[in-house]
Amino acid sequence: MKSLERRHKNIVAKNPNFSSLSCFTRAVDGQGFSKQTVHRWFYKLVEKDDYQRADVKGILAELDSLSKSAEDDKKQGYINTQSFAIQQRRLIARPQLQTAQI
Length: 102
Fold this sequence. Notes:
The protein contains five helices and no strands. It is mainly α.
């Protein structure tokens, strides 16, 4: 079983009331899958009742951007806001060095 398929099946199992498109979107989000991989598995895993045929190009474009978002941010040098916040908390929590009083 491939990575995207496995992720999708796990999400479907945890969220049985979600549509297959919603589960697929969650499976793709930030994972860095190639455009070809996203498109191939979209047609295999997402039920045709979950989208209109006229919307397929827009949906696939959005899924491609979701998949690449984390990878692109790293390439462009954006700061991971969560790790940045953790670093800030560490700096605030670190006690200031006491200078020797004369």
